[in-house]
Amino acid sequence: MMRMSLTRSRRGFSLLEMIFTLAISMVLMAIAAPMMGNALGYYRLSGDARALSNSVSVAKMRAASDFTQARLFVNLTAGYHLETFKKTPAPNGSWITEGGTTNLSGTETFSFGGLATAPLNTQAAITQGVTGSAQCKDVAGANIANSVCILFNSRGIPVDNTGAPTGAGALYITDGAAVYGITISATGSIITWQSPASTASWIKQ
Q: What is the Cα–Cα distance from 160 to 59, expressed in whole angstroms?
């Protein structure tokens, strides 16, 4: 009896059992692959939103700590970086870049896609930067093409390009499936929002 049991246990799997196991594995992989891709896309986009929000916070703190203007300069096709204003050289001073440029991951872009409404109690009309003065300006006051800025004065208060306090600043990034928004209130409070790209349904993060 013992010999018969050992013989049967050494046979291994039959061809039919192996094919059946392989078929189940392939079905599970086919189900899991799209879900894994969606999860990775979500983590990339949410990670970039957190990094962008942190950079806005750094610009705010740098303005207050150095008692000067500071801004997060966003090139809409080439990433973003921090700049602080120096009064030299005369007469206009200069914007000094601090650190390197941070780029978005994968196929993400600075955009709010087809969404037509900003998060509640933020911008009256959804736009990158600040409504009415979105583009960054050079020291001579000229617009810099393909750019938007979030600007803080020397007290860390968000302002528009005229120096007036504003609560209408925002930045948006999307991967085509979801949109993240970073809004800056008049008091300097920085809030991250998320919405599906298909319709504006903003949720505070």
A: 15
Cα–Cα distance, 116 to 109 (Å, whole number): 17
- CA neighbours within 13 Å on the CB side: how many for 189? 8
Q: What is the CATH number of the domain that holds 151?
A: 3.55.40
Q: Identify the burial level of 39 via C-beta atoms within 10 angstroms of its C-beta, where 0-12 means exposed, 13-18 middle and 19 or more buried.
A: exposed
Listing DSSP states for 9-72 in one string gives: HTS---HHHHHHHHHHHHHHHHHHHHHHHHHHHHHHHHHHHHHHHHHHHHHHHHHHHHTS-EEE
* pTM of the shown model: 0.80
Containing domain of residue 155, as a range? 48-204
Q: Which residues, including other chains, have CB under 8 Å from residue 176's CB and lie 6 or more apart?
A: 107, 113, 197
Phi, psi of 139 (to 5 degrees): -65, -20
- 37 lies in a domain? no
Sign of the alpha-carbon torsion through 59, 62, 66, 67:
positive
Q: Report the pLDDT value the prediction gives residue 1, as an integer from 0 to 100.
A: 47
| Contacts with 117 (C-beta within 8 Å, 6 or more apart), sequence order | 126, 200, 202
Q: How many domains does the chain have?
A: 1
Q: What is the pLDDT of residues 140-181, one digit of tens each?
A: 989 999 999 999 999 999 999 888 999 999 999 999 999 999
